[in-house]
C-alpha cells in the first residue's frame, strides 16, 4: 500500500497527541513511532520571538519531496511533517516530524533524516527578535546542519 | 520573468517580488545574477556575497550554473534556517 505523507505549513500551533493518534488509530501494524518536536528557546532570556519566513508553495513542495525520499528509503507506515511560520515566542512549537513503522530503526532513522534534510533544504528562514528591542537578526545557517545532512548521502555511497 | 526574494536578500533588494525582462544573452542563473546586480545599488548589495545565495527555479532548488530554460519564476534567498 502506498503511504502518503501528511505535510502542512501553517501559522497555527499543532497538537502532538492528535497527530500521533492520526498515525496509530485503528491500526495494528504500527510497532514504532518516533516523534520530534522543535521548540523556540529563549536563549537565556534574551530572545523575545522568532519570525519564521517561508516561500509559500515551495515550502510545502520541498517537504513533500523530502518525505517521499524518506518513504522510498525506509519501510514506513505513516509520516507527518508540520512546520509553522510567522511569529513564534519562546516555549512554542516550531516543527513536528512523526515517523511510524513496524520496527524502531526505520522510525528513528526516518525522523532523523527528515529533520536534517528539512533544515538544509526546506525554504524557511528564522529572524531573531530580542528582549532588548535592538532590531531583528537573521539566523546564520550552521555548518553542522549541512554536515548532518551529508551523513545520509555518505551512508548511501557506502552501501 | 518573475523574480522573488526572501529573508535578507529581500530586505536588501527592497521588494518581495518583481517582473523583469530577461536579455537574450542571459542563459543561466549566474548570468541572471550578474544582470540583476547591474540594475541598481540595492540589487548589487543583495548579491554582493553571490556565492552564499541559493536559487530555486519554478520552486525547485538548482545550482547557479543551471540553465534558465523555460522557467517562469526564479527565487533568490540565503541558506535555509528552518526546523
TrEMBL record, chain A:
Q: Which GO terms describe its biological process?
A: Mo-molybdopterin cofactor biosynthetic process
Role noted for this protein: Converts molybdopterin precursor Z into molybdopterin. This requires the incorporation of two sulfur atoms into precursor Z to generate a dithiolene group. The sulfur is provided by MoaD.
Alphabetically sorted, this entry's keywords are: Molybdenum cofactor biosynthesis
Q: In which pathway does it act?
A: Cofactor biosynthesis; molybdopterin biosynthesis
The reaction(s) annotated as catalysed by this protein in its Swiss-Prot or TrEMBL entry are: 2 [molybdopterin-synthase sulfur-carrier protein]-C-terminal-Gly-aminoethanethioate + cyclic pyranopterin phosphate + H2O = molybdopterin + 2 [molybdopterin-synthase sulfur-carrier protein]-C-terminal Gly-Gly + 2 H(+)
EC code(s) of this entry: 2.8.1.12
Q: Its family?
A: Belongs to the MoaE family.
The GO terms describing molecular function are: molybdopterin synthase activity
Q: Which Pfam families match?
A: MoaE
This protein's source sits in the domain of life called Bacteria
* Quaternary structure annotation from Swiss-Prot or TrEMBL: Heterotetramer of 2 MoaD subunits and 2 MoaE subunits. Also stable as homodimer. The enzyme changes between these two forms during catalysis.
Name the UniProt record assigns to this protein: Molybdopterin synthase catalytic subunit
Give the organism, scientific name. Answer: Roseibium aggregatum
From TrEMBL, chain B:
What CDD domains does the entry give?
A: Ubl_MoaD
Superkingdom assignment: Bacteria
Gene3D superfamilies reported for this sequence = 3.10.20.30
Q: What is the annotated signal peptide range for this record?
A: none
Q: What is this protein called?
A: Molybdopterin converting factor subunit 1
Q: Which organism is it from?
A: Roseibium aggregatum
Gene behind this protein: moaD
Amino acid at each position: 500500500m502506498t503511504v502518503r505523507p501528511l505535510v502542512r505549513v501553517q501559522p497555527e500551533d499543532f497538537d502532538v497527541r492528535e497527530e500521533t493518534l492520526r498515525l496509530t488509530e485503528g491500526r495494528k501494524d504500527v510497532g514504532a513511532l518516533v516523534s520530534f518536536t522543535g521548540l523556540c528557546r529563549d536563549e537565556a532570556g534574551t530572545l523575545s520571538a522568532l519570525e519564521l519566513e517561508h516561500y509559500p508553495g515551495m515550502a510545502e513542495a520541498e517537504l513533500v519531496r523530502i518525505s517521499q525520499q524518506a518513504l522510498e528509503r525506509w519501510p514506513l507506515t505513516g509520516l507527518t511533517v508540520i512546520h509553522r511560520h510567522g511569529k513564534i515566542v519562546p516555549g512554542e512549537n516550531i516543527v513536528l516530524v512523526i515517523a511510524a513503522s513496524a520496527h524502531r530503526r526505520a522510525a528513528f532513522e526516518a525522523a532523523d533524516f527528515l529533520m536534517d534534510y528539512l533544515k538544509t533544504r526546506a525554504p524557511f528562514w528564522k529572524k531573531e527578535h530580542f528582549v532588548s528591542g535592538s532590531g531583528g537578526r537573521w539566523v546564520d545557517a550552521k555548518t553542522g546542519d549541512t554536515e548532518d545532512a551529508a551523513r545520509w548521502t555518505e551512508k548511501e555511497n557506502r552501501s | 520573468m518573475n523574480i522573488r526574494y526572501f529573508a535578507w536578500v529581500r530586505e536588501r533588494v527592497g521588494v518581495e517580488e518583481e517582473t523583469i525582462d530577461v536579455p537574450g544573452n542571459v542563459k543561466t542563473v549566474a548570468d541572471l545574477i550578474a544582470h540583476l546586480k547591474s540594475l541598481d545599488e540595492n540589487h548589487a548589495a543583495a548579491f554582493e556575497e553571490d556565492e552564499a545565495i541559493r536559487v530555486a527555479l519554478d520552486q525547485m532548488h538548482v545550482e547557479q550554473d543551471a540553465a534558465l530554460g523555460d522557467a517562469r519564476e526564479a527565487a533568490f534567498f540565503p541558506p535555509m534556517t528552518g526546523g
